[in-house]
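<amino_acid_chain>
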Amino acid sequence: PWRVRGLNVRWSETSVELSLRVSRAEPGIAPMPVYDLYMDLNGVPGAGSLRPLEARGVFFPARDSWEYALVLAGPEGRLYRHNPRGEPESVGTFKAAADEVKDVWSVSIPRASLRGDPRRWGFTVLAYAEDPARPGSTPPAALVGPDGGIIMGLLAPLDVQRSVIEKRTPNARVPAARRE
């Protein structure tokens, strides 16, 4: 479930649908897979956060700082907004659905919560396991592996994936994916 294979973004006047293709979309497995989707809506360096939610062991380049983050965990997606004065603010919780045939997790978010043109957004996607010793944390607490690794999958070029997942580079820099 950890391999992130792609992200599809569709939108209309009323909603933005985010569909994350993974190696296996299977609800109810343990430890529970969690997917963080960080969204840079404006492309302004440093306008958002350079750090992910909680401790994830990576950081983002200034040009990919995020204004919104969506955490997909089980049957829900929780949307957060960067708060320059403190902890990220929860914007809302939305129903997430797993398509076990297509191996896709999807969530639809009202346009009132996510404004702007999705064609200009940057996306950073991280996959990790929820720590079973700390269930129900909001956002979910990440399971730290015996080697100190947290991130088990991400949407990034192969060299970045290797640096983060195989080499366990501490505080690895993870760039956002953008439309070409």
The first helix runs from residue 158 to 166. Residues 124 and 176 are 5 Å apart (CA to CA). The first strand starts at residue 4 and ends at 11.
